[in-house]
């Protein structure tokens, strides 16, 4: 093969559309909609058959950031002045974004609050800011983000990010400012699925293909 400087088609620029699973954490084998040949995955998730389970969070700011943080232990030996071996002893995966649409539903996800905390009182959507109680279990969410999968506009590719168990773990600021929009910055800690030990998956999909979901 002749030398090539590279391919601009592999330079991917663009944000992703983010969807949350309304029933909490995902079950990989049953909860993820299958790909439909010739249909973008955003359209599949937005189809009437899936809207009861999947909700588009709408506009986001500064895109999406998926961060992998491996933790390595060290084995030092007498014969060298450095570490002779590293071994993996831990792993953290985080997903960060900012919800630019300051809806009550997005705030509920950002706070990892229970669905029961959001209700309609006298016709007005009302979020109960509860302190919680003994025995409360953190509320996990399934997430799917669909972004561009190629730098070549002529190629119908999309990159799909799926997180089976995501939990909002950092402080969330709710603001009302004269010179700035109210946004919810969210940092999700991803946890592995019980059956597979997988945090989720990333799929580069050609829109013309069907088959299993994300």
Structure characteristics:
214 residues; two-stranded antiparallel sheet; 10 strands; 6% helix
Q: Specify the number of helices.
A: 2
SS elements, strand count: 10
The major β-sheet equals:
8 strands, antiparallel
Unreliable stretches (pLDDT < 50, length at least 5) are none
What structural class is derived from the secondary structure elements?
Answer: mainly beta
- SSE topology string: EHEEEHEEEEEE
Through-space gap between termini: 33 Å
Overall 3D form: globular
Mean pLDDT: 92
Characterise the protein shown here.
- This protein is mostly beta strands and 214 residues long.
- The protein has one domain (15-73, 81-206).
- It is 6% helix and 40% strand.
- It has helices at 41-46, 104-110; strands spanning 17-21, 54-56, 60-76, 83-99, 118-121, 124-127, 141-148, 157-168, 184-191, 200-206.
- Strands 1, 2, 3, 4, 7, 8, 9 and 10 form an eight-stranded antiparallel sheet that branches. The protein has a two-stranded antiparallel sheet with strand order 5-6.
- The two termini are 33 Å apart.
């Amino acid at each position: 093969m002749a030398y090539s400087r590279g391919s601009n088609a592999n330079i991917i620029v663009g944000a992703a559309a983010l969807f949350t699973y309304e029933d909490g954490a995902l079950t990989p084998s049953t909860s993820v909609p299958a790909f439909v040949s010739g249909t973008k995955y955003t359209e599949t998730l937005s189809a009437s058959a899936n809207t009861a389970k999947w909700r588009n969070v709408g506009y986001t700011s500064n895109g999406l950031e998926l961060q992998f943080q491996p933790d390595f232990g060290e084995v030092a030996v007498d014969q060298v002045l450095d570490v002779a071996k590293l071994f993996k002893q831990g792993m953290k995966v985080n997903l960060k974004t900012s919800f630019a649409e300051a809806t009550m539903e997005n705030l509920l996800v950002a706070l990892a609050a229970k669905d029961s905390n959001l209700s309609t009182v006298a016709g007005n959507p009302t979020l109960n800011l509860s302190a919680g109680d003994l025995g409360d279990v953190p509320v996990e969410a399934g997430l799917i983000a669909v972004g561009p999968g190629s730098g070549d506009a002529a190629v119908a590719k999309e990159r799909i990010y799926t997180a089976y168990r995501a939990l909002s773990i950092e402080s969330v600021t709710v603001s009302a400012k004269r010179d700035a929009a109210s946004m919810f910055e969210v940092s999700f800690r991803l946890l592995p699925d019980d059956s597979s030990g997988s945090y989720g998956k990333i799929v580069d999909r050609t829109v013309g293909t069907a088959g299993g979901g994300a």
